[in-house]
Design a protein that fits this description.
Length: about 200
Amino acid sequence: MTTRLSGDPADQRRCHAILLTGHTDLAANESFEWMTIKGDTTVRRAWRDLDEFLEKVDQAILEGCNVYIGLGVRRCPNGGVVGRCGCKHAFDREHVSRVMAAAADLDVKPPPKGFPSKAMAYDAVKTARRSPSFIVDSGGGLQVYWAFEEPLADLARFTNIQRGIAKFFGSDPIIDPSRVLRLAGTVNHKDGKPRPTKILKVVVE
Ligand SMILES: [Zn+2]
Protein backbone atom coordinates (compact mmCIF):
# COMPACT_ATOMS: atom_id res chain seq x y z
CA MET A 1 0.00 0.00 0.00
CA THR A 2 1.26 3.45 -0.85
CA THR A 3 0.12 6.45 1.11
CA ARG A 4 -0.10 9.97 -0.29
CA LEU A 5 1.22 12.73 1.89
CA SER A 6 0.39 16.37 2.32
CA GLY A 7 2.98 18.62 0.66
CA ASP A 8 2.94 20.98 3.64
CA PRO A 9 6.50 21.10 5.01
CA ALA A 10 5.34 21.05 8.65
CA ASP A 11 3.36 17.86 7.96
CA GLN A 12 6.38 16.40 6.19
CA ARG A 13 8.62 17.04 9.20
CA ARG A 14 6.13 15.47 11.59
CA CYS A 15 5.59 12.52 9.28
CA HIS A 16 9.32 11.86 8.83
CA ALA A 17 9.90 11.98 12.59
CA ILE A 18 6.98 9.62 13.25
CA LEU A 19 7.95 7.18 10.49
CA LEU A 20 11.47 6.93 11.87
CA THR A 21 10.83 7.03 15.61
CA GLY A 22 7.17 6.11 16.05
CA HIS A 23 7.82 2.38 16.47
CA THR A 24 10.41 2.97 19.19
CA ASP A 25 9.53 2.86 22.87
CA LEU A 26 12.19 4.81 24.69
CA ALA A 27 13.64 3.67 27.98
CA ALA A 28 13.88 6.35 30.67
CA ASN A 29 17.49 7.13 29.77
CA GLU A 30 17.09 7.09 25.97
CA SER A 31 16.40 9.89 23.51
CA PHE A 32 16.29 10.65 19.80
CA GLU A 33 18.67 13.02 18.09
CA TRP A 34 18.55 15.94 15.72
CA MET A 35 21.31 18.12 14.38
CA THR A 36 21.54 21.53 12.76
CA ILE A 37 24.26 22.98 10.58
CA LYS A 38 24.59 26.61 9.62
CA GLY A 39 27.88 27.73 8.11
CA ASP A 40 30.63 26.32 10.32
CA THR A 41 28.33 25.75 13.27
CA THR A 42 27.08 22.24 14.00
CA VAL A 43 24.73 21.65 16.91
CA ARG A 44 23.55 18.20 18.03
CA ARG A 45 20.67 17.80 20.44
CA ALA A 46 18.60 15.07 22.05
CA TRP A 47 14.80 15.06 22.24
CA ARG A 48 12.04 12.86 23.62
CA ASP A 49 8.86 14.83 22.94
CA LEU A 50 7.68 15.10 19.33
CA ASP A 51 5.89 18.44 19.68
CA GLU A 52 8.82 20.03 21.45
CA PHE A 53 11.14 18.69 18.76
CA LEU A 54 8.97 20.12 15.95
CA GLU A 55 8.82 23.51 17.66
CA LYS A 56 12.60 23.67 17.97
CA VAL A 57 13.01 22.56 14.36
CA ASP A 58 10.70 25.42 13.29
CA GLN A 59 13.07 27.84 15.00
CA ALA A 60 16.12 26.28 13.34
CA ILE A 61 14.45 26.62 9.94
CA LEU A 62 13.75 30.32 10.56
CA GLU A 63 17.43 30.70 11.37
CA GLY A 64 18.31 29.20 7.97
CA CYS A 65 19.79 25.96 9.31
CA ASN A 66 20.15 22.61 7.60
CA VAL A 67 18.27 20.13 9.80
CA TYR A 68 19.00 16.42 10.23
CA ILE A 69 17.54 13.53 12.23
CA GLY A 70 19.52 10.67 13.79
CA LEU A 71 19.14 7.00 12.89
CA GLY A 72 20.20 5.90 16.34
CA VAL A 73 18.53 5.88 19.73
CA ARG A 74 20.77 7.81 22.08
CA ARG A 75 21.87 6.69 25.53
CA CYS A 76 24.84 7.79 27.62
CA PRO A 77 27.06 4.81 28.54
CA ASN A 78 27.94 6.61 31.78
CA GLY A 79 24.36 7.00 32.92
CA GLY A 80 24.02 10.71 32.12
CA VAL A 81 21.45 12.52 30.02
CA VAL A 82 22.72 12.69 26.44
CA GLY A 83 23.69 16.23 25.53
CA ARG A 84 24.06 17.21 29.15
CA CYS A 85 26.06 14.22 30.34
CA GLY A 86 29.40 16.01 30.36
CA CYS A 87 31.08 13.34 28.23
CA LYS A 88 33.67 14.74 25.85
CA HIS A 89 31.84 13.37 22.80
CA ALA A 90 28.21 13.19 23.87
CA PHE A 91 27.00 12.25 20.36
CA ASP A 92 29.54 9.65 19.33
CA ARG A 93 28.71 6.02 18.52
CA GLU A 94 29.27 5.02 22.15
CA HIS A 95 26.16 7.06 22.86
CA VAL A 96 23.98 4.90 20.59
CA SER A 97 21.98 2.11 22.25
CA ARG A 98 19.92 0.95 19.24
CA VAL A 99 19.29 1.90 15.63
CA MET A 100 15.81 2.55 14.25
CA ALA A 101 16.31 1.92 10.54
CA ALA A 102 18.66 0.85 7.81
CA ALA A 103 19.19 3.55 5.21
CA ALA A 104 20.76 4.34 1.86
CA ASP A 105 22.01 7.74 0.72
CA LEU A 106 21.69 7.85 -3.06
CA ASP A 107 23.40 11.01 -4.29
CA VAL A 108 22.82 12.49 -7.68
CA LYS A 109 26.24 13.26 -9.11
CA PRO A 110 28.27 12.14 -12.10
CA PRO A 111 28.82 8.33 -12.13
CA PRO A 112 30.50 6.34 -10.76
CA LYS A 113 30.22 8.51 -7.63
CA GLY A 114 26.45 8.70 -7.76
CA PHE A 115 23.32 8.34 -9.84
CA PRO A 116 22.87 10.49 -12.98
CA SER A 117 19.35 11.51 -11.87
CA LYS A 118 16.82 11.02 -9.09
CA ALA A 119 14.69 9.02 -11.52
CA MET A 120 17.53 6.54 -12.03
CA ALA A 121 18.14 6.34 -8.28
CA TYR A 122 14.44 5.60 -7.87
CA ASP A 123 14.61 2.87 -10.49
CA ALA A 124 17.45 1.28 -8.53
CA VAL A 125 15.36 1.38 -5.33
CA LYS A 126 12.61 -0.56 -7.12
CA THR A 127 15.05 -3.42 -7.73
CA ALA A 128 15.85 -3.81 -4.01
CA ARG A 129 14.84 -7.11 -2.46
CA ARG A 130 12.87 -5.41 0.31
CA SER A 131 10.57 -2.47 -0.36
CA PRO A 132 11.69 0.55 1.66
CA SER A 133 9.51 1.94 4.44
CA PHE A 134 9.78 5.43 3.00
CA ILE A 135 11.88 7.55 0.65
CA VAL A 136 12.98 11.15 1.11
CA ASP A 137 14.01 13.53 -1.67
CA SER A 138 16.89 15.28 0.10
CA GLY A 139 17.39 17.94 -2.55
CA GLY A 140 20.63 16.36 -3.71
CA GLY A 141 19.36 12.82 -4.15
CA LEU A 142 17.25 10.17 -2.44
CA GLN A 143 17.42 8.83 1.08
CA VAL A 144 15.85 5.45 1.48
CA TYR A 145 14.77 4.02 4.84
CA TRP A 146 13.95 0.50 5.94
CA ALA A 147 12.58 0.76 9.48
CA PHE A 148 13.48 -2.23 11.69
CA GLU A 149 10.51 -3.93 13.30
CA GLU A 150 12.28 -3.48 16.61
CA PRO A 151 15.19 -1.03 16.84
CA LEU A 152 18.41 -2.98 16.43
CA ALA A 153 20.75 -3.16 19.43
CA ASP A 154 23.37 -5.22 17.60
CA LEU A 155 25.38 -2.35 16.13
CA ALA A 156 27.87 -4.64 14.36
CA ARG A 157 24.93 -6.24 12.57
CA PHE A 158 23.67 -2.79 11.63
CA THR A 159 27.04 -1.99 10.07
CA ASN A 160 26.97 -5.27 8.12
CA ILE A 161 23.47 -4.57 6.81
CA GLN A 162 24.57 -1.09 5.81
CA ARG A 163 27.62 -2.39 3.97
CA GLY A 164 25.36 -4.75 2.01
CA ILE A 165 23.00 -1.91 1.10
CA ALA A 166 25.86 0.34 -0.03
CA LYS A 167 27.29 -2.49 -2.12
CA PHE A 168 23.94 -3.13 -3.75
CA PHE A 169 23.47 0.51 -4.75
CA GLY A 170 27.12 1.41 -5.23
CA SER A 171 26.48 4.27 -2.79
CA ASP A 172 28.47 5.72 0.08
CA PRO A 173 28.04 3.37 3.05
CA ILE A 174 26.25 4.69 6.13
CA ILE A 175 28.00 2.40 8.59
CA ASP A 176 28.11 4.65 11.62
CA PRO A 177 25.08 4.13 13.92
CA SER A 178 25.44 7.75 15.03
CA ARG A 179 24.73 8.97 11.52
CA VAL A 180 22.10 11.67 10.90
CA LEU A 181 20.12 12.25 7.69
CA ARG A 182 18.39 15.34 6.37
CA LEU A 183 14.86 15.86 7.71
CA ALA A 184 12.04 16.01 5.14
CA GLY A 185 10.14 19.31 5.07
CA THR A 186 13.29 21.34 5.67
CA VAL A 187 15.48 23.29 3.26
CA ASN A 188 18.74 21.93 1.88
CA HIS A 189 21.13 24.90 1.88
CA LYS A 190 24.12 22.95 0.61
CA ASP A 191 26.11 24.64 -2.18
CA GLY A 192 24.30 27.94 -1.62
CA LYS A 193 21.16 27.04 -3.58
CA PRO A 194 18.20 26.36 -1.28
CA ARG A 195 16.29 23.24 -2.27
CA PRO A 196 13.18 21.87 -0.56
CA THR A 197 13.19 18.34 0.79
CA LYS A 198 10.17 16.06 1.02
CA ILE A 199 8.95 12.53 1.53
CA LEU A 200 8.42 10.99 -1.88
CA LYS A 201 6.74 7.83 -0.89
CA VAL A 202 5.64 5.81 2.11
CA VAL A 203 5.31 2.10 1.58
CA VAL A 204 3.28 0.07 4.08
CA GLU A 205 3.57 -3.64 3.54
ZN1 LIG B 1 27.60 10.69 28.03
